[in-house]
Amino acid sequence: MLNHILDWARGDARPVPQDGTLRRAVAALLTEAARVDDSLDEPERERIQALLAWRFRLGPFEAAQLGTDAERASDGAVSWHALTHAIREHCDEPARIRIVEMLWDVILADGKVDDLEANLMRRVAALLFVSDADSGAARRRVLARNGAAAAANGDPE
């Protein structure tokens, strides 16, 4: 709640579309980012739910339900092109960069980035029309915010 107030005070509070398309697309993309290394562990699941709650101003139950729905949906084939297209349709560039930052947050939840995750981030950032420089800056913000846990595990900058 405090984050929402701080966002509003900084002028960052943007209306979130009530259409569930954006919510589902972001939730599915976050889930795919967590699963790309063939595991979806509890820290990643909790991080996804916290990010969904923050971004879409959801309560804990709603965020958990959205996360669960995304997990079920990602058990089948998921089209990154369709997900990123839906996000591009609903978001301007700063919002897309924040979504890339959310993806980095999920990937770094376990404190490391493997090759598959790095590859995913390069491809998804490109599909969202987010530059490598902006994606790298988003990653650095996540590392700075979450401490040096990822760096301590040998994750190069």
Layout of secondary structure:
Elements lengths: L1 H9 L9 H16 L6 H15 L3 H14 L6 H11 L2 H15 L7 H13 L4 H15 L2 H4 L5
Helix pairs in contact: 2-3, 2-4, 2-5, 2-6, 3-4, 3-6, 6-7, 6-8
Estimate what percentage of residues fall within beta strands. under 5%
Instruction: Tell me the major beta sheet.
Output: none
* Helical content band: over 70%
Regions with little confidence, pLDDT below 50 for 5+ residues: 1-11, 13-18, 150-157
The structure class reads mainly alpha
Oligomerization state: single chain
Mean pLDDT: 82
What would you say this structure looks like, in words?
The chain has 157 residues and is mainly α. The chain is 71% helix and 0% strand. The protein is built from nine helices and no strands. The protein starts with a helix and ends in a 5-residue tail after the last helix.
What structural keywords apply?
single chain; 157 residues; mainly alpha; globular; disordered N terminus; disordered C terminus
Question: What is the compact description of this entry?
Answer:
The protein is mainly α.
